[in-house]
Every structure is written in structure tokens, then in C-alpha cells.
Write a structure and sequence with these properties.
With about 180 residues, this protein is mainly alpha-helical. It contains 7 helices and 2 strands, in the order αααααββαα. Strand 1 and strand 2 form a beta hairpin.
């Protein structure tokens, strides 16, 4: 997939998330199906935060390494290589113990979620044209996937949003 196709697919998934949000009350968006499970609102917050503060921030680091920091985290891990070859994350649940650093806050409003999703689309559109000239030797390490280039961090945003569609459907069923 090229950058344009990734961006188009990402915009479609984001529009899907936004349309889905319209069908829920704030009470439903904050309802957690279990003690250590995220609400639908928290899941959307997670997507927004991961995209803005990890994935796209690392894509930018690959594009504009400052003079003090040589950006090169080496090669992808075996898991990372497999994921990018498949073009998607495996359809498995990943559970991380609750923690202040990782557990997303409950949303304050639907507007906050919609605006957050739209801000990720804006950032993706800003970064996309820069990827054409991105140096392939500039990588930033992902905790499980190893050194990723700017384009791979960019692709990961779309793959991550797609991966969470399963969780969204599971959370919707729990609300039904």
C-alpha cells in the first residue's frame, strides 16, 4: 500500500468510528464491561493518544532527527517484520495491567472524542507528503516491533485503528 492508500483507508476507518460514536450516550461510552476492561470511550482515547503521542511523534522523529540524536534503532524484530508483511496486527486481545501511564482517561464528552479523531486525521495529512523523501536509515524503536521508519510508524496508525475494530464490536455487544 502506498501513502495515499494508507491515508484513504485511515480516513474511512476514522469516519466509521465517528459515525459509531453518534449512536451512544456518554453513559454508554464510559461504561466498562469489566473491572479491568476499557470502556468504548477509553478505547477511542487510546487510539487518539497512541497515534498523536507515539506513532506520529515517532514518524516525525524519523523525518526530522535533531543534531544531538542520531535516529537509528536498527532492524525490525521478527514480529515486526511479520506484521508489516501481513499489513495488519494479529486479531488477538492484548491485555496490559491497569496503570496511570497506560490506562486512558474516560472521555469528558463525545465532542472531545470526535475532535481527537479529527486531529489525528489532520496530523496524518500533514505528515503524508513528507514520507516520500523520508530517509530509510532513520528509525525509532517500537517496544515489540523494533526499528521502524517514518512510513512504518505512519502505517502503524491505520493498522492500529483497524485492529481495535474487533474490540469496538465486542464493547458494542456488551452494551446491547
Amino acid at each position: 500500500m502506498n501513502t495515499t492508500e494508507i491515508l484513504r483507508g485511515f480516513e474511512e476507518i476514522t469516519e466509521h468510528y465517528i459515525l459509531e460514536l453518534e449512536g451512544f450516550s456518554m453513559e454508554q461510552l464510559k461504561r466498562q464491561p469489566g473491572e479491568n476492561e476499557w470502556s468504548l470511550g477509553q478505547m477511542v482515547q487510546h487510539l487518539i493518544n497512541a497515534a498523536l503521542y507515539m506513532q506520529l511523534a515517532n514518524a516525525e522523529r524519523c523525518l526530522t532527527p535533531d543534531g544531538n540524536e542520531a535516529v537509528s534503532a536498527g532492524e525490525k524484530t521478527e514480529v515486526g517484520a511479520a506484521i508489516f508483511e501481513q499489513g495488519s496486527l494479529p486479531p488477538v486481545r492484548i491485555q496490559v495491567p491497569p496503570s496511570p501511564q497506560y490506562t486512558p482517561q474516560q472521555p469528558e464528552s463525545k465532542e472531545q472524542l470526535v475532535e481527537g479523531l479529527k486531529s489525528v486525521v489532520r496530523r496524518m495529512n500533514e505528515i503524508a507528503p513528507k514520507l516520500e523523501n523520508a530517509p530509510l536509515h532513520h528509525t525509532v524503536a517500537h517496544p515489540r516491533f523494533g526499528g521502524l521508519t517514518a512510513e512504518e510508524w505512519f502505517r502503524l496508525v491505520e493498522m492500529h485503528y483497524r485492529h481495535h475494530l474487533l474490540q469496538k464490536d465486542r464493547l458494542k455487544q456488551a452494551l446491547a
